[in-house]
Amino acid sequence: MGIKKCSVCNMRCIGRIFRFPKDSATKNMWLEALNMSRSDITESSYICENHFRSQDILKLAGKHHLRVDAVPSLHINQPGSSATITAENSITLTGDRNL
Predict the structure, then answer these.
(1) Quick check: is 96 in a domain?
(2) The whole model's pTM is what?
(3) SS in 3 state form for the chain?
(4) d(CA 64, CA 30)
(5) Best label site of 14, 29, 75, 76, fewest CB within 10 Å?
(6) pLDDT at 78
(7) Domain named THAP-type: which ranges (predicted)?
(8) Nearest residue to 72 via CA among 22, 43, 30
(9) CB within 8 A of 21, min separation 6: which ones?
């Protein structure tokens, strides 16, 4: 698997990554949670594991999958802030909002 770029933190991710859902209702929930629109993503858009709670990621038959009801909720850029992921996979948010 090559290195993909996360659509949320705009960083190249080496860890687990997930595509946006094909289901329109679920995709809309993700877009709303991420403060994004359909024009912000393509068929090849990904989100890295850093934006999901650990309980949202399941290991089945040796592969990692998202729970059906998983919605990205961690380290989401908010207006006036930005995210930076360090080599240790910690994310620092900066900006004028209290998060």
Answers:
(1) no
(2) 0.72
(3) CCCEEECCCCCEECCCEEECCCCHHHHHHHHHHHCCCHHHCCCCCEEEHHHCCHHHEEEECCEEEECCCCCCCCCCCCCCEEEEECCCCCEEEEECCCC
(4) 19
(5) 14
(6) 52
(7) 1-75
(8) 30
(9) 27, 30
On the question of pLDDT at 1 being above 60, the answer is no
Q: Which residue has the tokens 């912000």?
A: 40
**Residue type for 46, please?**
Y
> Domain residues for 24?
4-91
User: Is 22 inside any structural domain?
Assistant: yes
Q: Is 54 a member of any domain?
A: yes
Model confidence pLDDT, tens digit, residues 30-45: 999 999 999 999 988 9
The answer to whether position 99 is within a domain reads no
Among candidates 16, 87, 96, which has minimal Cα distance to 51? 16
Specify which residues 65 forms β-bridges with.
58
